[in-house]
Amino acid sequence: MSNFPSIFLSATVNQLKQRIDALSPEKKPKWGKMHAAQMLAHVNVQFQMSEGAFSAQPAPVRFIMRLLVKPMVVGPKPYKKNSPTAGAFKVAEAQDFEEQKQKLLSNLNRLLERGAAHYEGVDSPSFGKLTAKEWETLFYKHLDHHLQQFGV
Q1: Residue 139: is it exposed, middle or buried by C-beta count within 10 angstroms (0-12/13-18/19+)?
Q2: What pLDDT digit, counting tens, does each position of 111-136 carry?
Q3: 127 burial class (0-12, 13-18, 19+ CB within 10 angstroms)?
Q4: Domains located in the chain, CATH noted
Q5: What does the mean pLDDT of the chain come to?
Q6: Cα–Cα–Cα angle for 85, 50, 56, rounded to 5 degrees
Q7: Cα separation of 42 and 25, whole Å?
Q8: Which listed residue, 76, 86, 124, 127, has the most CB atoms within 10 A of its CB?
């Protein structure tokens, strides 16, 4: 199903942390408009969503999202460069790099501590209930995409 490493394994999280540590506020993206601090805030939104911080989309919207968008988001293919960003994920305002970096590291630690079983059947505001495997793919794929965006 997934072509990505398991984000629920400490070895994978440690590799991600090394890549995050290679970021700096001055690092320029290879594509896109976000600065490094905005990107960190952007990827933190995914963790907030898994915690129930966003209201569910109306049923008709969720149906369309499950049908058309979910396969791209949790599927095996990497995201394309400059893919459109959902409104809830847009971060236009300036962000504090260190604050967002520490939030991301904390989010990764919490994800690792909880393990896959915690995410089984957790509701996504856009897609409905996801399996732990779908959350695993979504978390890793999204973070990896943006770390590649910044060359780390």
Answers
A1: buried
A2: 999 999 999 999 998 899 999 999 99
A3: buried
A4: 10-78+89-149 (1.20.120)
A5: 91
A6: 70
A7: 15
A8: 124
